[in-house]
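pasting for the record
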Amino acid sequence: MFKLLSVALLALMATFIKLLGKSVPIGETVFVRGMMAILVLGLIAHHTTGLQVLKTSNWKRHAMRSLAGTGSMFCYFASLSLIPLADYTAITFASPIFITILAMIFLGERIHAFRWTALVVGLSGVAIMIAPQISSQHGNGLGAVLALGGALSGAVAITTLRSMSRTEPAITITFYFLVTAMICALMTIFFGWVVPTKQQAIWMSLAALSGVLGQLSMTTGYKYAEASTLAPLDYAAMIMAVVIGYFVFSEVPSLWIWVGSALVISAGLVIIWREFHLNKRITTVA
């Protein structure tokens, strides 16, 4: 329930970001989201573990994870103003595929023929989704590339997270990511922030609030179930994106998005299933 709630809330966040469009600079939106998230995180830390949880000596890892996560957020927010919501959602599903590749390169994880096949299928799906958009003349190519860049940056962030989550508390990791995102966003003030209208201020606040609550719901969900059990629920976002895109933005996904997303989702489920059985085997042996 918590995982599905997080998927719904993050889909709402994307909706509000898309409603803002190009009328409010991305950096301004990222800053507001980060500020609200830090306030909520500070209250949680104060009433649970205490603010001493924010102390760390692992600055290099935090910097890498935070910068990658910030880059991912900027790419995602920018792509939402250029491509349909369902297209954006489908392309972001490439992240688990990138995570598997990065884990092999940087963490030394072994990939056998089973997962190699899934990777080839998934990357083929990504190519099917973005190739028509890049070749079109309606500005969708840049949006697709940004969404793909967000998926890759997010994969870098999660891969780094894997190597530091054993020693660093989740609150600490999230806090420094948000601080980094706010600092980077604040640098964009020189490019011309705007005074939002009442409607825009409401959308920015709702985007920030749904983003914070979505992250908290996701974290809570992982306390009650294994990651391999909850991960497939991420794909419910595609259904939500199609419904919201149709009724709010009058968007209908193209055939290429349906075909490509089906391949990417299938590859992602195979990778999740494989990791679940590998972890189960290791646990049984231990």
